[in-house]
């Protein structure tokens, strides 16, 4: 049956009498087809900012902006909240310039705060071992999942790279995979003896039971088709539950663990960058922060003066 329910439109923000100059700005946002949610967010943020200053908002200069940023930080607003408020102020002063009410931009010299990148969830080496050992090896699907987990952790692949891995990209004799990653960039990734062993076991003992067509993907569903990211994500959650792993997981948990554990054991950052297929080293550097946090936790836990 078709769902005819329309998305709920939020009620408009009530603009206090002392801020009636925002009514024209609200009408401007409507004319620019800005969504009701964004309009409300901008107006709410502007009212909050205006309440922190005695001078009327339309007359603010660079000093007012500097002062408001200090006050927002004193209130311990998050970088995300401050960035959103800065966006609202930029939009408001752009409106004033377009209406010929101002010729300058008091925010011209201020950059929007950089939002911190979310750190990957940390998974201990013991948790990785427990997760990898969870599949039932007496079934073809269990053997498949064990091989997938071993390869994922050994190579640090993206989940999409794993499920789209083709037979022709395997070189088990020389011990590497040929991966076509983001932007069609090719890289060679070493497998390691353990993952080679489980891949061979899966290919010899389990895949023939799943193979039903000429499909050349390595890892197949129980019906012989291509696995989806959702299939594999459900499997990871199931095995984490079986292994009593309480850490928060994501589809890329083992990719993150691969990188963090390599760095924990002294791997060079540029080597990890190449293995992960990152085009920019700054993307890989996030794992040094994860490793540092883990080292601090271990120090606090085990050092007699931690």
UniProtKB/TrEMBL annotation:
<feature type="active site">
    <location>
        <position position="252"/>
    </location>
</feature>
<feature type="active site">
    <location>
        <position position="182"/>
    </location>
</feature>
<feature type="domain" description="Tyr recombinase">
    <location>
        <begin position="118"/>
        <end position="300"/>
    </location>
</feature>
<comment type="similarity">
    <text>Belongs to the 'phage' integrase family. XerD subfamily.</text>
</comment>
<dbReference type="Pfam" id="PF00589">
    <property type="entry name" value="Phage_integrase"/>
</dbReference>
<keyword id="KW-0963">Cytoplasm</keyword>
<comment type="subunit">
    <text>Forms a cyclic heterotetrameric complex composed of two molecules of XerC and two molecules of XerD.</text>
</comment>
<dbReference type="InterPro" id="IPR010998">
    <property type="entry name" value="Integrase_recombinase_N"/>
</dbReference>
<dbReference type="GO" id="GO:0009037">
    <property type="term" value="F:tyrosine-based site-specific recombinase activity"/>
</dbReference>
<feature type="domain" description="Core-binding (CB)">
    <location>
        <begin position="16"/>
        <end position="97"/>
    </location>
</feature>
<dbReference type="InterPro" id="IPR050090">
    <property type="entry name" value="Tyrosine_recombinase_XerCD"/>
</dbReference>
<dbReference type="GO" id="GO:0006313">
    <property type="term" value="P:DNA transposition"/>
</dbReference>
<dbReference type="InterPro" id="IPR044068">
    <property type="entry name" value="CB"/>
</dbReference>
<feature type="active site">
    <location>
        <position position="255"/>
    </location>
</feature>
<keyword id="KW-0238">DNA-binding</keyword>
<feature type="active site" description="O-(3'-phospho-DNA)-tyrosine intermediate">
    <location>
        <position position="287"/>
    </location>
</feature>
<dbReference type="InterPro" id="IPR002104">
    <property type="entry name" value="Integrase_catalytic"/>
</dbReference>
<dbReference type="GO" id="GO:0051301">
    <property type="term" value="P:cell division"/>
</dbReference>
<dbReference type="InterPro" id="IPR011932">
    <property type="entry name" value="Recomb_XerD"/>
</dbReference>
<dbReference type="InterPro" id="IPR023009">
    <property type="entry name" value="Tyrosine_recombinase_XerC/XerD"/>
</dbReference>
<dbReference type="GO" id="GO:0003677">
    <property type="term" value="F:DNA binding"/>
</dbReference>
<keyword id="KW-0131">Cell cycle</keyword>
<keyword id="KW-0159">Chromosome partition</keyword>
<dbReference type="InterPro" id="IPR011010">
    <property type="entry name" value="DNA_brk_join_enz"/>
</dbReference>
<feature type="active site">
    <location>
        <position position="278"/>
    </location>
</feature>
<feature type="active site">
    <location>
        <position position="158"/>
    </location>
</feature>
<keyword id="KW-0132">Cell division</keyword>
<keyword id="KW-0229">DNA integration</keyword>
<keyword id="KW-0233">DNA recombination</keyword>
<protein>
    <recommendedName>
        <fullName>Tyrosine recombinase XerD</fullName>
    </recommendedName>
</protein>
<comment type="function">
    <text>Site-specific tyrosine recombinase, which acts by catalyzing the cutting and rejoining of the recombining DNA molecules. The XerC-XerD complex is essential to convert dimers of the bacterial chromosome into monomers to permit their segregation at cell division. It also contributes to the segregational stability of plasmids.</text>
</comment>
<dbReference type="GO" id="GO:0005737">
    <property type="term" value="C:cytoplasm"/>
</dbReference>
<dbReference type="InterPro" id="IPR004107">
    <property type="entry name" value="Integrase_SAM-like_N"/>
</dbReference>
<dbReference type="Pfam" id="PF02899">
    <property type="entry name" value="Phage_int_SAM_1"/>
</dbReference>
<dbReference type="GO" id="GO:0007059">
    <property type="term" value="P:chromosome segregation"/>
</dbReference>
<dbReference type="InterPro" id="IPR013762">
    <property type="entry name" value="Integrase-like_cat_sf"/>
</dbReference>
